[in-house]
Amino acid sequence: MTADAPSDVRGSLLRRIHETYASLPDREARVADTILNAPSEMPVWTASELAALAGVSNATVSRFVQRLGYRSFEDARQDARTLRETGSPLFMKGDMQMASSHADLLRAEAGVIETTLAQVDPRVLAEIASALAGAGQVRLIGFRNSRFLADYLTAQLAQLRAGVAPLALEGQTLAEGIAGVGPGDVVVVIGLRRRPAHFGHLVRLLSERGARLLLVADKGLREAPAYATWTLTCAVETALPLDSYVGVMTVLRLLAADTAEALGDAALHHLNEVETLRDSLSELER
Questions:
Q1: Class assignment of domain 102-281?
Q2: Domain 13-91 of CATH type 3.30.70.980
Q3: Total Cβ atoms within 10 A of residue 204
Q4: DSSP 8-class letter at 208
Q5: Is-contact 166 193, C-beta < 8 A?
Q6: Cα–Cα distance between 5 and 69 in angstroms, integer?
Q7: DSSP of 98-119, one letter per residue?
Q8: pLDDT tens per residue, range 94-143
Q9: Which of 36, 35, 63, 37 is nearest to 49 (CA)?
Q10: Distance between CA atoms of 44 and 146, rounded to whole angstroms?
């Protein structure tokens, strides 16, 4: 591929390096090794800094990035910055040793919760809770790390009312789940960063079904909120390389509590029925 090729033809920076590595000349392989050993530094390195660390010339760095299909070093660095912004752990600046300090971890997690709650309007939460209480059906979905968060909220709401279930059951396709949604329903889509490629298309298809749509996402979500009835933005980033979900969990707990309040006696009656059935089935240990 020549230096004039579009910078996005061959995928991300690391993919390009791995696909090209075996054919790299020795000096360019040293540049590749330097990046692979510390990918989180690539968004901030200059070409001269990378050259010095690899023990090569600036011209070697230039030849290397052009061999990968980038027009310039800045294009390669911008690719790395994009990966960091979208939450790739390899490109997130941070020190895993921080996790061994309970005090540092506690401060980081508390900061995530505070930042998240500062962005959430209690009146909007109450409006969403009222919709969840009165919906014909409530369907929930999340992908990758968002999956367990969707499962958590599903479990909480299912204790309060009937008609709560995952959008796509095991063995179902997404199409079957979407087809079962219509006006009068509420769909909760949890989509934190590192979302699957089809995420925006899914949100649009759901909005076309006439259901009200709640999106729970991070600040990096762009087009999808235009199709949602409500969007709750949660903080996820800390100084550690891995995202934190304590802010999201706090919002989901508040939402479940507000839904229980909106349901009133109906939530107590449903929970009583659930508990009676649990006793009858001896499902929980005493």
A1: alpha beta
A2: no
A3: 14
A4: T
A5: no
A6: 6
A7: GGG-HHHHHHHHHHHHHHHHHT
A8: 544 445 567 777 887 888 888 888 888 889 999 999 999 999 999 999 98
A9: 35
A10: 29
